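Priority: low. Protein: Class I SAM-dependent RNA methyltransferase. Input follows.
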Amino acid sequence: MADAPDIVDLTITNVAHGGVFVARHEGRVVFVPDTLPGETVRARLVDTRKKSFWRAETLEVLDASPDRVDHVWSSSSIERDPRDRAGGAEFGHIALERQRRLKADVLSDALVRFGGLDADSPLTRVAVEPTPSDEGGDGLRWRTRVSLHVDEEGRVGPYAARSHRVIPVDDLPLATTEIADAAPLHDRLQGATTVDVVASTDGVLVAVDGAASTGALHERVGDRMFSLEPLGFWQVHREAAELLSAAVASAVDADRFDATAPNLDLYGGVGLFAATLADRFGTGIRVTTVEAESSATDHAAENLVDIVGARAVTDRVDRFVRAIGREGDLARYRDATVVLDPPRSGAGTALVGELAALQPAQIVYVACDPVALARDTKALRSSGYELASVRAFDLFPHTHHVEAVAAFSRSGDRRS
Ligand SMILES: C[S@@+](CC[C@H](N)C(=O)[O-])C[C@H]1O[C@@H](n2cnc3c(N)ncnc32)[C@H](O)[C@@H]1O
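Result:
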């Protein structure tokens, strides 16, 4: 068989999960970055090993979408050789409004294809909401955490998309101004491998190879201060913690909330959503945060000290939930509210099934991956839960990422 030609002209038909777009070449799906539906691009086929799909890189736009704009980060521009385009702003060439519609399409499509929802269900028609300050804004200067890499010559920068090649850059336009100013973009850090730059209420911290100059950082959400490890998990957009906390608070159905039930904040980090529940329903509530990192749990215990019935547990969520099941004390959980905020891979079908077996009154799922949310939605729906609401937020402008908050209630329960 003759080799396929390297360079092809492709017409883009759709957006796919993961920040790439879909074209077809000789009947085969080709995933292409740096483009938009409706565009025709000249592209180089770069991965043709798989039978089911190939990958290509965009070299030139032959017929541009009206939603194409100059890239917000010149270091990622299509004018550059694909190998030299900085990663991390893969939607930066798209008008913000259109970025949000594309993210909504990916979420809707996932809920239908993997979540089993009807295509015409109103629950699949989710609008991706901007944060208050990004409304009408440019979607820049929001990142409070940036991880950079150092190459063998000591140059500091982000990786190129889908690569471990360090790209030296002059600016970090998605990062807050303090971070962009503090990042050692022009230094030579020979022998180092990573640089993390973190902005918190304590100022900006620059950590080379994970070495932080402080024991803890602090973040404010409303009237609450949270302490956390310098490089520990915290929501990345400067408005994310406040916005997600409000979204979780309003996703919880007050009629189903029982302050005396063993309520859970799973994948709890330093206790953000346990505090959300207490701020909405009073500091007399019972709530347990479960988190795998013991250092985060220590901070959670400190952060939740005013909540009389709060407990912070270090455990893997799957082990914790399985242990409840083994204890046979399931009845206590029938009145519980569960908030869960798993990492990108989602909670997983097995854990979701075990959680559903506890039959909590309601589950609020905070998701940073639409497909993982959709798969877990399917598992919850087949274990006796109904999807009651979904909201989505543009907490990662100019990237393909989207955050969603989904509320589930036990099927057959009636609101009182
Ligand atoms: C997306 S973060 C959410 C943290 C917290 N809800 C917040 O908003 O700040 C996910 C958290 O889950 C923790 N984690 C990851 N896998 C876990 C597991 N299997 N069991 C318990 N915690 C886990 C991580 O350490 C991280 O703190």
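The chain has a mean pLDDT of 95. Residues 233-235, 267-269, 272-273, 290-293, 296, 316-317, 341, 343 surround S-adenosylmethionine (CB under 6 Å).
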